[in-house]
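Bump. Still looking for Putative pre-16S rRNA nuclease structure tokens.
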Amino acid sequence: MIILSIDHGTRKLGLAVSDETGFIAAPLPTLRVKNQKEAIEGITQIADDVRAEMLIIGLPSGWEGKDSEQTTLVKDFAEMVKKATGLDYKFWDESYSSKQAEFGARGRKRANSDSEAARIILQEYLDWQREKPE
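Sorry for the wait, here they are.
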């Protein structure tokens, strides 16, 4: 199953895709958009291009487990993407993925950190899927 991962931002969306076996996540080019309509159209096209069968969407955690403004934004966005693509989605906690993505193992800033964050989110999900008890 091919899964498309999204790290939501208002102007940039990080994207990553899994291989068909669900073993490895790879970053895609960051999607730069001017508005939400453009974001939905871009994701719909990319999901179609990669033949995605499901979405993983990074969800920011709010303070003390309560939804923040950004959490609500992402949840609303996820519903719009589902309506446009027809694909089901799951949320995955994106805590620390952006910080982890921003700097490489040697402390150098990465150029494509938004999509690297989406890759980290997706890889964590794929690893969890493989390791969870049946």
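The chain has one domain: 3-131.

Edit: fixed formatting.
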